[in-house]
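step 4 of 6: structure.
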Amino acid sequence: TKSQRSIDTFFKRK
Amino acid sequence: MFEARLVQGNLLKKVLESLKDLLTEASWDCADTGIQLQAMDNSHVSLVSVQLRADGFDKFRCDRQLSMGMNLTSMSKILRCAANDDIITIKAQDQADNVTFVFESPNQEKVADYEMKLMNLDQEHLGIPETDYAAVIKLPAAEFQRIIKDLSQFGESVVISCTKEGVKFSAAGDIGVGNIKLAQTASVDKEEEAVTIEMQEPVTLTFACRYLNMFTKATCLAPQVTLSMSPEVPLVVEYKIGDMGHVRYYLAPKIED
């Protein structure tokens, strides 16, 4: 099954 | 003080319609270059980035950088009080704790002003890396909205697969499987109806329909939508705001466990 990733695992906090 | 006047006020009305289902509150960051907004939805699965350039306004004054935290549901209610052909002006004093929206009818016979309290939102911003996408698909916005609406009935995820033949949208669930294939249009009389694909390499990714459906609320903004994809990175769904900016939605993919 595919699990939903979070957007903040791709874009780093500034 | 801050003051921005937009004769084509309905653009701002449509921007709020594009955001209000996804975000409950966000900060509008104002500078002399224009107005920007960046926020994640509450589940941190998607990110929205809005840009409205200063030169797109008929009058734009921003003496000091200003960040206005707003409840977007309230802002949307206020903007619904503006007529489609109203001129909209946003005003705020520096260090203000409220913002004023002024709606003027084209013949200046009716002027309405609404004052809304601002919120203190300590929203951190995310860095979005410049990406050279494997595939960039441009298609009619209404077409994309229809595809997502139709396939959402079949499952909670849509697989978007881009090859040199074209782009395929698929969904599967209890009632069955749906596939929609779009080929690049050869020649169209109207640019806005074209489907164009720029592909460096084939790419296939899976996304949640729930967010794609919310993104297509921006269909009212622009005749076309651009989808940018690369393996294992968020999808970008972009709608232009006239010639003054854009609404960009970023959606994290669903990845094999």
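step 5 of 6: annotate
 - Chain A has a mean pLDDT of 92.
 - Chain A has no helices and two strands.
step 6 of 6: archive
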